[in-house]
């Protein structure tokens, strides 16, 4: 654990196979080669708060939202990353606010749809890490960049 948000990633290796169905699917991992996601629309999902003013932590349904991916310097300009290093991060959100992740969503996915071997697949590009508030205007969110850690992930898998 790193309190300022660096290296905000972990691996859990399962002993048994997971049964796949309509509700449980596998997300692909990105390649180790550098990919820039700036300008791409991504999706995120979580069970957390729906807004900052709620006092109910657990949602009874999984919520998802589409966010735009920005250059990490846009997050630095918005003072979101002033408390952490910018390496290994993806910046996403909506400049005008109104949608984003919230308390309880940390550790959830940021994924894109990508054509792989002729099929549309979900690729895990980020992990929800840090934000200020929930979907605030001019407050982009920080996600751990999974591609940045692929050599580390492959070493342990």
UniProtKB/TrEMBL annotation:
Q: What is this protein called?
A: Peptidase S1 domain-containing protein
Highest rank taxon of the organism: Eukaryota
Give the UniProt keywords, A-Z: Disulfide bond
Disulfide bond: present as a keyword of the record? yes
Instruction: List the GO molecular function terms.
Output: serine-type endopeptidase activity
Where does the record place the Peptidase S1 domain? 1-157
Q: Which Pfam families does the protein's record reference?
A: Trypsin (PF00089)
Q: What protein family does this chain belong to? A: Belongs to the peptidase S1 family. CLIP subfamily.
Its GO biological process annotations read: proteolysis
InterPro entries per UniProt: Peptidase_S1_PA, Peptidase_S1_PA_chymotrypsin, Ser/Thr_Proteases_Immune/Dev, Trypsin_dom
């Amino acid at each position: 654990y790193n309190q300022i948000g660096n290296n905000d990633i972990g691996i859990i290796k399962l002993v048994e196979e997971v049964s796949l169905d309509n509700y449980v699917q596998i997300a692909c991992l990105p390649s180790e080669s550098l990919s820039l996601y700036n300008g791409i629309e991504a999706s995120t999902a979580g069970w957390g708060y729906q807004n900052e003013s709620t006092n109910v932590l657990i949602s009874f349904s999984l919520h998802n939202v589409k966010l735009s991916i920005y250059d990490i310097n846009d997050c630095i300009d918005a003072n979101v990353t002033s408390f952490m290093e910018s390496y290994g991060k993806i910046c996403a959100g909506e400049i005008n606010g109104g949608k984003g992740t919230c308390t309880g969503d940390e550790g959830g996915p940021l994924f894109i749809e990508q054509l792989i071997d002729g099929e549309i697949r979900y690729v895990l590009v980020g992990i929800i890490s840090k934000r200020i508030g929930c979907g605030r205007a001019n407050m982009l969110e920080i996600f751990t960049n999974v591609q940045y850690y692929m050599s580390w992930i492959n070493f342990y898998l």
